[in-house]
Specification:
With 251 residues, the protein is of the alpha+beta class. It folds into 2 domains: 7-143, Four Helix Bundle (Hemerythrin (Met), subunit A), CATH 1.20.120.450; 151-247, Nonspecific Lipid-transfer Protein, Chain A (2-Layer Sandwich), CATH 3.30.1050.10. It is built from 7 helices and 7 strands. The protein has helices at residues 7-27, 43-63, 84-102, 121-142, 151-165, 216-223, 238-248, and strands at 34-35, 38-42, 177-183, 188-194, 197-200, 210-214, 233-236. The strands form 2 sheets. It has a 5-stranded mixed β-sheet. A hairpin with a 4-residue loop joins strand 3 and strand 4 (188-194). Helix 5 (151-165) packs parallel to helix 6 (216-223). Residues 14-140 form the Mycothiol-dependent maleylpyruvate isomerase metal-binding domain. Pfam families: MDMPI_C, MDMPI_N. One of its GO terms (cellular component) is plasma membrane. InterPro entries: DinB/YfiT-like, Maleyloyr_isom, MDMPI_C-term_domain, MDMPI_metal-binding.
Length: 251
Amino acid sequence: MNSTPPFSALLALIEGRSAALRDAVDAAPDPTVRVPGCPDWSLTDLVTHLGGVQRFWAATVAAADDSGPLPPGQRGEQDPEGDLPGWFSESTGLLLGALRTAGPEAPCWAWWAESGAPLTAGAVARHQVQEAAVHAYDAQEAIGRPETLPAAVAVDGVSEFLTVCLGSLGAWPHRPARVAFQAIEGPSWTLDLSPAGARADPAASGEPVTSLRGTASDLVLALYRRIPLSDIRIDGDRAVADQLLAWSKMD
């Protein structure tokens, strides 16, 4: 199913989820508190990471070249300068500015060429929504106030993870399997796993061996390993669900 919001809505979601992360950091009594979803990081590390990611993609989108990644010296400033919250706000502004200037169809290198997803600024915006949303959740969890992902983020987040993230991983290393995902809100997805890789929404042929059901937010958070699989309903072969998460390892 096509659940991707319009380009303007993607930009608004990047801005909103980045602001949610900033709000969580501002509310933290100690910026060195550890982040459960990224246990090697403090909140300061989390902000530095996402700010660097946003600057990297701002520079990559501005280059308008899908032939390969930018040289290291042209990938945007990765080390914070001065006030960290201000630097992070500037990072978000640089990303949004580059995306608005480029427009959704502008060519852009990205790491997901193998998935068949477009190498465009629009596809970058789509993934950056998920990057900001999951890390905003990380920051909220770190201060003990985790929030459900917004519906517009979560529904497309399942689809984007299955098609882009899993679609970029190459051959499935286990026995071929079909997996169904059902969001309580209504949308559903089917994923085939085989030596040819992960293929979302394949032609109908055979029943899933495993079915995962939960809110769209919980499905996304489980796929990114922010919540345990025990928080969602799994019917059928649980081992396939465990293998899928171990294979993906998307942070």
